[in-house]
Design goal:
The complex is a heterodimer of chains A (199) and B (638). Chain A has seven helices and no strands. Chain B has 638 residues and is mainly alpha-helical. Helices cover 38% and strands 7% of the residues of chain B. In chain B, the strands form six sheets. In chain B, strands 1-3-2 form a three-stranded antiparallel sheet. In chain B, strands 4-5 form a two-stranded antiparallel sheet. A two-stranded antiparallel ribbon of chain B has the order 6-7. The radius of gyration of chain B is 26 Å and the shape is globular. In chain B, 49% of the residues are buried. The chains are: A mainly alpha (199), B mainly alpha (638). Chains A and B meet through helix 2, helix 3 and helix 5 of A and helix 1 and helix 20 of B.
Chain lengths: 199, 638
């Protein structure tokens, strides 16, 4: 925890916003416009939002794996993590609205009650996590229970995405993004170990 | 400084991209509202509904004659408009139109039975670009052409016996493949004709972009399918029976469905079908649709018709399209029952048959015909018809042909309609085109696996390959419709909360029913058979037999000789013989440009043999001829 206390407080800089907003906007534009060239635009758009969420959370998971409990999280993490959530929620609104006619019972029927609870649970804890990240002063230097919370939410999101991208997604894009998430998490954990050895 | 500039540029680009994306989604909502607002009556759905059959932008339709003259020209126009040449029914509102035809007034001049929607063809997302699309009424509405040159109002439910739909499709394909046709050219010509048509700045940009996208997409799709479809015919070939053997009033539905659903060439398909009438389709009167009785539900029938005509699975899932298909199917169920259809006497008051003759004919019909067709009691009022009585020993029964023909010979009609290649693979293919819910989809997948294994066991590895591909297509589609495609069949009755789709799997294809089983329960059958059904409004069913090979009822019942060759097109209706006046060709040619299609019954699929009821020609006596004349009189009244 020594690192945490000695690192300077992170400050939000314009480049943080610029270079997280840019991929977010690119992903949204891709989902909205590229889908128009696909045989089923609505379906493609729904998938593209979830792919976009995976793209956005990859750096956030990398940062979380490397830094949690060691070094202060930074605004890159907070922004990528938040934009990822926005894209997942958009994906879910499309799924619930377009594919399931705004009927949660049909979602439960599709995924099974446990699957649906896990899915909605994921979104609930992620929303809470993002709200806490934008409201708590110690978001970058979480300790104790909050640090556990952050770690558990990140692990939950990571496992859910990897499972869905490899098991539910039956396309190359999903599998590739699943691999990217594994790589990001693996790299983060690897560097975390490397940092410890260096220390 | 540089870092600051880079940040500003990145944020600016992001904001533009987000505003454009959100703006597009909001505009989509606005554009889709136009189609969503088309809540319709059954008639409106049938005649103006969206069925996923968008053909081309309205703006292109306005200028087609100017920018694509060569593609549509048949050399047989004879002063007729482009639409009339192909047999489309003129819009009854068009005669009141005193101004230039433009996009804004498209509903007043597009031919009868065209819809105006904002859907991009096949992709089925909405843009400001308006499209003209085919509806049920394009094919299933007709007119009675009288000897004095007059035309009746459009008759909903009658087949359009002048419509050259395959020729028109080839003409459209020609136009799309024209390398000189560009979006700019279309818009330039359009602006010359309709300079006051103000689209608005943003919609104008989007329209121009979408027009370009539509054209390049259509060209790529049509060009990419020439290996399967061949190059389209053009010029006089479009009206030549040698090139396009279907001709007016007929289609090749199973060639289409083999191409669309199975992605296989259909050229060796000779199942020519007259565009059928769609009166009184209520399931108690007509439990199975199609000439072969292969479809068991009016909604499935309507879905199949739209799908075979080119509507994509994506388009067929749109709520407006689903609603229109269901409303149009319900309309045909009541058309002629609670929704009136004018009887023969309304069109030919001068030729109303003698009531006593009609009554005698009714007795002949009951004795010789009602067994298969049921009957309609004679109405005391010639302006009305009595309800059809669906009673008969063989009514709704399958009549096998070929190997399935009964020992006494059966119908004896041309069998190409039901014996085409791949006929037995179509039911499962069609069923698995639309995934059901999760439980049903599992069974669909299992049946595709079984079909593959059966093919392997039968020594047909190529067919096994086909089923493997079909399964891949099915799985791909299933991903998009997790709770099942909205038009999946067999479907539970509306409002029956206790019914689940998985309860209906026993009637999902392939079924192992016997051709003689009654009633047939399977949702799609593939018997080499025709079905006995009622024949309401028989006078509007000419020419007769499934392939339209017999011009009049008098010829069908052998009161007159059946012609071997005749000319089809804009034929005048003959109330005496109850059918069409069809001139004989001279020197193997139909010289009249308006009746230029030479129908030759010797051509495969065109056979006019069979259905020798009540008697064969050699069995006729003077007394029987008198009975046939009475029968003809009665048939005019039903």
């Amino acid at each position: 925890m020594a690192h945490l206390q000695t690192e300077p407080a992170p400050r939000l800089q314009p480049y943080h916003v610029a270079f997280t907003l840019l991929p977010f906007a690119a992903v949204v534009a891709f989902a909205v416009f590229y889908a128009l060239s696909q045989p089923n635009a609505e379906f493609y758009r729904t998938n593209a939002y979830s792919w976009g969420a995976a793209v956005m959370i990859a750096p956030a998971l990398f940062l979380m794996a490397r830094r949690l409990g060691r070094r202060a999280l930074n605004h890159w993490w907070r922004l990528f993590w938040s934009f990822g959530l926005i894209l997942l929620l958009t994906h879910d609104i499309e799924i619930l609205g377009w594919q399931h006619l705004w009927r949660p019972d049909l979602v439960a029927a599709q995924f099974g009650l446990i699957g649906a609870v896990i899915l909605w649970g994921l979104e609930a804890v992620w929303v809470i996590d993002v709200l806490m990240a934008w409201n708590r002063l110690d978001w970058a230097r979480a300790e104790g229970r909050y640090a556990w919370w952050q770690g558990c939410v990140s692990g939950y999101v990571f496992l859910a995405f990897v499972f869905v991208l490899f098991r539910v997604g039956q396309d190359m894009e999903s599998h590739a993004l699943g691999a990217v998430l594994l790589l990001a998490m693996g790299l983060g954990l690897g560097l975390r170990c490397y940092d410890r050895e260096e220390a | 400084m540089i870092r600051k500039a880079v940040n500003i540029i990145a944020i600016a680009v992001s904001v533009v991209a987000l505003v454009a994306s959100v703006g597009w989604l909001l505009l989509e909502d606005r554009w889709s509202a136009a189609d969503g607002a088309m809540a319709k009556s059954g008639y409106d759905a049938f005649t103006h509904g969206a069925f996923g059959l968008e053909a081309f932008p309205i703006k292109y339709a306005v200028v087609a004659g100017r920018v694509s003259p060569a593609a549509f020209r048949t050399t047989l126009e004879d002063g007729r408009s482009l639409w009339e040449t192909y047999g489309f029914i003129a819009n009854p509102k068009a005669k009141d139109l005193k101004v230039q035809t433009c996009e804004a007034n498209a509903k007043q001049w597009l031919p009868y039975g065209f819809a105006v929607t904002n859907y991009m063809p096949a992709l089925a997302f909405q843009t400001p670009l308006q499209f003209a699309g085919l509806t049920c009424a394009s094919c299933h509405s007709g007119q009675v052409r009288k000897a004095d040159g007059s035309l009746s109002e459009p008759i909903s439910g009658m087949g359009n016996m002048e419509l050259d739909v395959i020729a028109f499709t080839d003409a459209v394909r020609n136009a799309m493949l024209d390398p000189d046709l560009t979006a700019d050219r279309i818009l330039d010509e359009y602006e010359k004709l309709c300079p006051d048509d103000d689209t608005g700045l943003i919609d104008g940009w989007v329209e121009a972009f979408m027009l370009d996208q539509w054209l390049s997409g259509a060209r790529a799709a049509i060009g990419g399918e020439t290996a399967k479809y061949g190059l389209p015919y053009h010029g006089a070939e479009l009206k030549s029976a040698g090139a396009i053997p279907a001709g007016p009033g007929r289609t090749r539905p199973f060639r289409s469905i083999v191409r669309v659903a199975m992605d296989l060439p259909g050229e060796d398909n000779f199942a020519y079908s007259k565009i059928p009438v769609v009166f009184e389709q209520r399931v108690d009167l007509r439990p199975r649709a199609q000439y072969d009785g292969s479809l068991g539900d009016p909604v499935t029938r309507s879905f199949t018709a739209a799908y075979a005509s080119g509507a994509s699975v994506t388009a067929l899932a749109k709520p407006e399209v689903v609603a229109d298909i269901k409303a149009a199917a319900a309309y045909t169920e009541e058309l002629g029952i609670s929704i009136p259809v004018k009887p023969f006497a309304a069109y030919f008051p001068e030729a109303v048959p003698d009531p006593a003759e009609v009554e005698r004919g009714f007795q002949v019909f009951k004795q010789y015909c009602a067994d298969c067709h049921g009957y309609r009691p004679v109405s005391r009022d010639p302006a009305k018809v009595e309800p059809w009585v669906a009673e008969g020993e063989r009514l709704h029964r399958m009549m096998g042909v070929g190997p399935l023909a009964p020992a006494e010979g059966g119908l004896g009609v041309d069998a190409d309609r039901v014996t085409f290649r791949y006929a037995h693979d179509l039911p499962l293919t069609l069923w698995t085109a639309l995934p059901g819910n999760a439980a049903v989809a599992k069974v669909q997948e299992a049946r595709l696996d079984k079909a593959k294994n059966d093919a392997l066991a039968a020594g047909e590895p190529a067919l096994a390959f086909y089923w493997t591909q079909q399964k891949a297509r099915f799985l791909e589609t299933k991903r998009a419709y997790r709770k099942g495609h909205p038009l999946y069949f067999p479907a539970c009755p509306e409002g029956d909360g206790n019914c689940k789709p998985e309860d209906l799997l026993a009637i999902a294809p392939p079924c192992a029913d016997d051709v003689n089983a009654f009633p047939q329960k399977c949702e799609i059958t593939d018997f080499e058979a025709f079905i006995n059904n009622p024949i309401p409004y028989a006078f509007l069913r000419a020419p007769y037999l499934h392939n339209g090979s017999i011009p009049t009822m008098a010829q069908l019942i052998h009161l007159e000789e059946r012609p071997d060759r005749f000319c089809r097109g804009q034929n005048v209706y003959d109330p005496a013989d109850m059918g069409y006046v069809t001139p004989a060709p001279v020197d193997d040619e139909c010289a009249d440009p308006r009746q230029a299609f030479l129908f030759d019954t010797a051509v495969r699929g065109n056979g006019n043999q069979g259905h020798d009821y009540p008697w064969k020609p050699e069995e006729l006596t003077d007394e029987r001829r008198a009975e046939l004349r009475a029968l003809l009189a009665y048939l005019k009244t039903i």
